[in-house]
Amino acid sequence: MNGKRKGNTDMPDTTTVKAESMPSHSRHTIEQYIQSPERLRQLYRRTLAVVIISQLLGGAGLAAGVTVGALLAQDMLGTESYAGLPTALLTLGSAVAALMVGRLTQRSGRRAGLATGFLLGGAGAVGIIAAAAADQVWLLFLSFIVYGAGTATNLQARYAGSDLALPSQRAKSISLALVSTTFGAVAGPSLVEVTGHAAESVGLPTLAGPFMLGAVAFTLAGLFLLAFLRPDPHVIAKAIAQAQLAEGSQTAVARQTNKRGIVIGASVMIITQAVMVSIMTMTPIHMKHHGHSLGDVGLVIGIHVAAMYLPSIVTGALIDRIGRTAMVYAAGLTLLSAGLVAALSPSDSMPLLILALALLGLGWNIGLISGTTLIVDSTDPATRAKTQGSVDVFVSLSGASGGVLSGMVVAGTSYAMLSLGGSLLSLILIPIVVWNQSTSRQRA
Question: CA 96, CA 397: separation in Å to the nearest integer?
Fold first, then answer.
């Protein structure tokens, strides 16, 4: 851990921790971490390492639905009007899964919640493959909902790194979890043609190929977390908070609960998600209409996904250094630029499409990490996971709305009008931050 924790004199006495709040088989282990700041630092670093490895795997599963989900639906439905439905259903499934993972984490810890979500995502990918093979649209849509559990869990994992982090390390911890998604998330779109050929070789439709990768990636991520995310960081964090409360540190714990901060953080993530998903969903369809190859689509989406995750390590450091508020402004302006470039670019210009989608990914990255950090800052460890899951429900629903409406907007108007609308929506982030500054002092 980069920050310095105080010595044992500032750590709670283990005799104050309510025994009934901990699993009996792990009570002694938990007490050891409460007593030793050094062991706690080691657990923090180990937790980050486990989360990073799981995200390397989970990123590959995340990218499959983003890259070819709309194209697969268009092929099976024979129309583009509902091509945004897979993304909408995926994000709807993500919303349900976010609530489930959050509540399961609150009850049983990060390990149980994250592993369950990833394994469900793997099962959903298998269902999509089966639907494509049997040409069953109902099974495709149902499977996209289940597949959304993997997507939700991939995002929920960002919280795991912050459970044991100091306030000055939270954004960096969240960013490390996100940046580790980059390899798999970028490799996924880049392997669209390769996995498509693999699918054809076993008699499956070409567009089922990326979901073969997704099934393996999500399943391996879930099994890895199940095996190695122990002792559970969320259980340890709750025990420490409870011990501090029991010894009379109610003021310190109460300071962590800030409803206004939760509202601001959630609003930032909701708007960011809606703008990103709506433009991203229809970009492959837009490109296909103007003669771009599947390889071109994979390249643009791959760069977009890289921009979503790769800048995370810098983003997190900036948020911790210059503050949450300034970076929310940066998110709004970056998303505004992305929408304008996408709206005004010639349809056959690959460089400008790449620029627009890269800016879109970067704006999402800044908004998500800023909003997530605000949520962690503003919640009590005793209820943090449940709150995080509930907030991510609304984030996913905003993505679902953006996904389903994007197809209708493009069918009724154009991709340029969709992009312009997204850029205008991103401007709402600025008055949200102004309101927050005028009513409360932002924690750095």
Answer: 9
Residue 268: DSSP 8-state: H
**Cα(267)–Cα(271) distance, rounded to whole angstroms?**
6
Cβ neighbours of residue 255 closer than 8 Å, sequence gap 6 or more: none
pLDDT digits (tens, 9 = 90+) for 41-84: 888 999 999 999 998 888 877 766 666 777 787 787 776 666 66
Cβ-based burial of 293 (10 A; exposed 0-12, middle 13-18, buried ≥19): exposed
- Give tens-digit pLDDT for 410-437: 888 989 899 999 888 888 888 877 776 6
Helix (H) or strand (E) holding 133, with range, is: helix 110-134
Q: Which residues contact 293 (CB under 8 A, 6 or more apart)?
A: none
* Those residues with Cβ within 8 angstroms of residue 108's Cβ, 6 or more apart along the chain or in another chain: none
Residue type, 241: A
Q: What angle do CA 8, 10, 15 make, to 5 degrees?
A: 75
Domains by residue range for the chain, with CATH: 31-439 (1.20.1250.20)
- Distances, alpha carbon 132 to alpha carbons 49, 148, 227, in Å: 36, 17, 32
pLDDT, tens digit (0-9, with 9 covering 90-100), for 96-146: 898 999 999 988 999 999 999 999 999 999 999 999 888 888 898 899 999
Residues 79-100, buried b or exposed e (16+ Cβ, 10 A)?
ebebbbbbbbbbbbbbbbbbbb
**Residue 325 corresponds to which tokens in the numbers above?**
């508020």
For the chain, how big is the Rg over CA atoms in Å? Answer: 21
